[in-house]
Amino acid sequence: MKPEEREDNLYRNGKRCQISLEEEALFELFDNNSSAGSKVLDVGCGSGEIAHVINEKGHLVSGIDFSPIAVELARKQGVDSQLVDLDSGIPFDDNTFETVWAGDVIEHVFDPIFVLKEIKRVLVPGGQMLCTVPYDLNLATRLRIFFGHSYQENVYREYGQYKHHTFFSMPLMKYMLNEAGFEPQNIKYLIKIPKTRIQYITESRAMIYFANTMIIRATVHK
Predict the structure, then answer these.
(1) What local confidence, expressed as pLDDT, does residue 108 receive?
(2) Alpha-carbon gap, residue 6 to 117, rounded angstroms
(3) Cys-Cys crosslink for 84: which of 35, 64, 107, 188, Cβ 3.0 to 4.6 Å?
(4) How far is Cα 140 from Cα 149, in angstroms, rounded to an integer?
(5) Residue 222 lies in a domain
(6) Where are the alpha helices (DSSP H) in the chain?
(7) In this structure, what is the dihedral angle of CA atoms 166, 168, 172, 173, given to the nearest 10 degrees?
(8) CA-CA distances (angstroms) from residue 75 to 58, 64, 122?
(9) Which residues lie closer than 8 Å to 56 by C-beta, 6 or more apart?
(10) Which of 93, 101, 103 is nearest to 124 (CA)?
(11) Distance CA 112, CA 56 (A)
(12) 220, part of any domain
């Protein structure tokens, strides 16, 4: 089954783009670093819930996704969205957007550096990218590997598939950003304490071993 067909099935069965703690952290970065009425691209917009909120804030948002079902759902939310395979590029002109939002996207593409370069291309000089990416070197993953288990095993057992192409560390993410022409400005972490429901956002590197997600604001090199 093709990846887009899997996603289509998930959206048919009720999948929606929930706004959780990490998206709230991105919205805080967005609100603090955006001008009124700015142009925003939501990469991997899914069913459009996030893009709809950005629209409600008075910005001009476009969305792209590789799932036809997701694109239709986003359009029903009033989002100007279109069907796009990110690995083939982003079909917008250079210097089009002030912000590109890429939540839980970079880990799913075949060539993340190419996609980051495409994001940089469609941003205006000094524009910003807001993204979330898994932190794959947390303590729980390290322990699984230490005891001889694949880091993918739990996900395969629960979902029957593993959709991430890249195993991310912070140095790898910084390398990719630099290669694409970005400079990190803000890095936060979503912390999830194992065996509990405790989760929160922090900027402390001391807590990175408990991090589940990296929350990043990066700007185009001027």
Answers:
(1) 94
(2) 27
(3) 64
(4) 11
(5) no
(6) 3-12, 21-32, 49-56, 68-76, 112-122, 139-146, 153-159, 170-180
(7) 100
(8) 17, 11, 22
(9) none
(10) 93
(11) 30
(12) no
In contact, 79 and 106? CB cutoff 8 Å: no
Where does residue 181 fall: left (phi above 0), alpha (psi -120 to 50 degrees), or beta otherwise? Answer: left
Nearest to 43 by CA among 62, 64, 28, 23: 64
- Its domain, for residue 176, covers 3-215
- Which strands sit side by side in the sheet containing 80-83, from one edge to the other? 80-83, 60-65, 39-43, 97-103, 123-134, 211-220, 182-192, 199-202
CA separation for the pair 159, 208 (Å, rounded): 26
pTM of the model: 0.94
For residue 51, being part of any structural domain is answered with yes
The structure tokens 């009425």 sit at: 37
Give the chain's length.
Answer: 222
Find the CATH number of the domain harbouring 159: 3.40.50.150
Which residues are CB-neighbours of 54 under 8 A, at least 6 positions away? 30, 40, 42, 61, 101
pLDDT tens track, the chain, 222 positions = 788 888 989 899 999 998 999 999 999 999 999 999 999 999 999 999 999 999 999 999 999 999 999 999 999 999 999 999 999 999 999 999 999 999 999 999 999 999 999 999 999 999 999 999 999 999 989 999 999 999 999 899 988 888 999 999 999 999 999 999 999 999 999 998 877 888 999 999 999 999 999 999 999 986
Instruction: Indicate the SS3 state at residue 215.
Output: strand
Number of domains making up the chain: 1
Does residue 221 lie in a domain region? no
